[in-house]
Amino acid sequence: MRIGLALFLAIALGVGAPAIDPVVTIWYRGTPAGTPKQEDLNVIRALGFVAISWPASQTKSVDALKKMAATAGLQVMVSDPPKPATAESVLAGAERVDFVVTPQNSPALTALAWRAIAHGSRVIGFDAGVTNGAGLENFDRSLRPWVPAARTISRHFGANNRLIQVLRPGPGVLISPDAVPGLDVAMLDADRSWVLVATNTSSAPVAATVRLPAGAPYALWADLLDTSTLAMAGEAAGPRWNLKMDANGAHVYIIDKKMK
Fold first, then answer.
1. Are 211 and 173 in contact (CB under 8 A)?
2. Which residues lie below 8 Å from residue 191, measured CB to CB, with a gap of 6+?
3. Per the count of CB atoms within 10 A, which of 92, 99, 145, 259 is most buried?
4. Nearest Cα to 251, choosing from 117, 124, 161, 122?
5. Cα atoms found within 13 Å of the Cα of residue 209, Cβ hemisphere only
């Protein structure tokens, strides 16, 4: 069974919004460093991104950058140097997190981004770790391996913007065993809906039993990332989810609170 994204959003939209609009931003430092170029910005926008981060130390070119970014259709965030976030540090719930992309963390970017959102972050920055430009392309203009994942994350953020705005901590869940390396499961309140964000940031598959609070709906939860569905075992103690996740996997399940 496949359920349209429009239905997910229709049941999830709530009221109110935080000060920061959920967004994915790409670090851009100019070419050469400190000198913005319209062509660079056009490429970033053409790849599907809607925002860039510019070093706060490069104040001289900010006005020119903002004009070029407006022409390209990009939002500009002038930011302090990124503090590389990890699977553990995002649990602190900072409003903004930056992932400095490395060969080690690039396979888990989707899981890292959604884990950050589940714990309260609303701005996700990706930094290629280059001293100039944005580092999205190789010399032959092919995309670097991590860019498709970042593009997909940005697209999901755009499609689910209002849903992310209203997310807030929900009831706790019980996980057995209680310390599965790389696994995090958060149940979130989206006003008229519940959202479950499960992420595995390890390089190996994981399995666990997840117990939701008594009375929570047990079927059918629908995944915003791939529109697959999940049916749990309905039990008096609460729905039981026999979770199995691939390495570096992520699920963002949603259900109407009134569904049974």
1. yes
2. 12, 13, 14, 15, 166
3. 99
4. 117
5. 7
- Tens-place pLDDT, residues 107-125: 999 999 999 999 999 999 9
With a CB cutoff of 8 Å and minimum separation 6, the contacts of 148 are none
In angstroms, the CA 102 to CA 127 distance is 9
3-state secondary structure of 139: coil
Tell whether domain 168-256 is in CATH 2.60.40.1180.
yes
pLDDT at 172: 95
Structural contact between residues 200 and 246, judged by C-beta atoms closer than 8 angstroms? yes
Tokens 């000060």: give the residue: 19
Tokens encoding 30: 């100019």
Q: Does the pLDDT value for residue 185 go beyond 50?
A: yes
Using DSSP, state whether 166 is helix, strand or coil.
helix
- Do strands 206-211 and 174-176 pair parallel, antiparallel, or not at all (unpaired)? antiparallel
In whole angstroms, give the CA distance from residue 247 to residue 127: 23
Q: Which residues contact 251 (CB under 8 A, 6 or more apart)?
A: 196, 197, 198, 199, 223, 225, 230, 245
The predicted-structure confidence for 65-106, as pLDDT tens digits, reads as follows 999 999 999 999 999 999 999 999 999 999 999 999 999 999
* Per-position DSSP letters for 6-27, written without gaps between them: HHHHHHH--S---SSPPEEEEE
Q: Which among 144, 113, 142, 107 is positioned nearest to 128, based on CA atoms?
A: 144
> Residue 149 — φ and ψ, nearest 5°?
-65, -45
Domain map (residue ranges) of the chain: 17-165, 168-256
CB atoms inside a 10 Å sphere around CB 240: 17
pTM for this model (two decimals): 0.90
